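note to self: dont lose this again. the chain is below, predicted strucutre after it. 138 aa total, dont forget to put it in the shared folder this time
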Amino acid sequence: MTGEPDPNQLDDRSGVITKRSPLSVDDAVARLLALVTSKGMKVFAVIDHSGAAAGVGLTLRDTKVVVFGSPLAGTPVMQASPLAALDLPLKVLVWADGSQTKVSYTAPSALMARYALTPELAAQLAGIDALTNALVAA
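---
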């Protein structure tokens, strides 16, 4: 035991959940894209931070963000709390931590607290937990 927090638990300070993936970053991103589209959600963007860094001669660990969501789920949340648009659509960070791939995202409970969402509205965002569980079970 190293005294480090369990990476599959919520970090109460940041409201971020991090899970370990057995896949490479690229394979995890590809699997996440497939899972998102299979659920009928829209992929808005894949941001390749490490690729952008390499493009200007800098080095950054393999780091990609997948931006996705469902207007049917997100719109009512933004209608109730316009500032929620700062966190929507949902985002999943897939990143290399040494030889380990990790998947991180803002916990739905943190979004609920941040935007004073009702439990019903927060439930619109909770699917990210099951989606990332399916991703890391690959």
